[in-house]
Specification:
Its EC number is 7.1.1.9. Helices cover about 30% and strands about 25% of the residues. It is an alpha/beta fold. It has two domains: about 80 residues, Helix Hairpins (Orthogonal Bundle), CATH 1.10.287; about 150 residues, Cupredoxins -  blue copper proteins (Immunoglobulin-like, Sandwich), CATH 2.60.40.420.
Length: about 260
């Protein structure tokens, strides 16, 4: 059974594949901006080369200091270009910040030095657990020997589990210093600030495992507090939720892909 894994790839230059509508918009915005940027880059490079060639051996510096049409042109054209970028950019930002639909579930994420705690708060189903980076010696015990699915430094012992195709509200805070909860495939990057609860939302379309990392320097083990999110169908999520409250190990064992 092949599962989608949202992780960085070797020699990757673009963004990670989008798994949520928010990331889809960010990807579109990036493509659109690139379409505008490449002609500008080409124009600037050609202009530099052209002017350099034209002025080879010319020791007289140009004394022209006023050219109204030119000044108007280089003011108005950039304004127009920036306006073109502004519109989709603000649209994406507004979409990212608004939670129009009622969330299916709220999950509280608390950052600690140097691990994450996930709290599920449903009526009769309130429980929380810690998510630490997967250690090499845990791989066999947790059946996470496949390093393609569970990459070193990104995989965790217990993932954050979310249902697919449902709006999940994520409340983010910190118990000690400032951390950053970032999952590139979700287009999600929210600071975890002590004493402050910040909310975000995700709606994962494709089931899979998605990796992220703490994105605010938070101390010695900042590089070793990865974020792993497992997105499963609603049915599997409900089964997991029922079990997880009483027996977390069992819940993860039963839900594991390919088993
Ligand atoms: Cu951190």
């Amino acid at each position: 059974m092949s599962i989608f894994v949202g992780k960085p790839l070797n020699w990757q230059t673009g963004l990670q594949r989008s798994a949520t509508p928010v990331m889809k918009q960010i990807n579109q915005l990036m493509s659109f901006t690139n379409v505008l940027l490449f002609p500008i880059l080409a124009f600037v490079v050609i202009a530099i080369i052209f002017l350099c060639c034209k002025n080879v051996g010319n020791t007289v510096i140009s004394q022209t200091n006023k050219n109204l049409p030119l000044e108007l042109m280089w003011t108005i054209i950039p304004i127009m270009i920036l306006s073109c970028i502004c519109e989709p950019s603000f649209k994406a930002l507004k979409y990212q910040m608004s939670q129009k639909r009622l969330p299916f579930i709220s999950i509280k994420v608390t950052a600690h030095q140097w691990y994450w705690n996930y709290e599920y708060n449903l009526i009769g189903n309130r429980f929380n657990y810690n998510s630490n980076m997967l250690k090499q010696q845990q791989r066999i015990g947790l059946k996470k020997t496949n390093s393609g699915l569970y990459p070193e430094l990104l995989a965790t012992d217990y993932e954050l589990v979310v249902p697919t195709r449902r709006v999940v509200r994520i409340l983010i805070t910190s118990a000690d210093v400032i951390h950053g909860f970032a999952v590139p495939s979700f287009g999600l990057k929210i600071d975890a600030i002590p004493g402050k609860l910040t909310d975000a939302w995700i709606k994962v379309i494709t089931p899979g495992i998605y990796y992220g990392q703490c994105s605010e320097f938070c101390g010695r083990d900042h590089a070793f507090m990865p974020i792993a999110v497992r997105a499963v169908s609603q049915e599997r999520f409900s089964n997991w939720l029922k079990l997880a409250k009483s027996n977390l190990d069992n819940a993860f064992r039963l839900m594991r892909y390919g088993s």
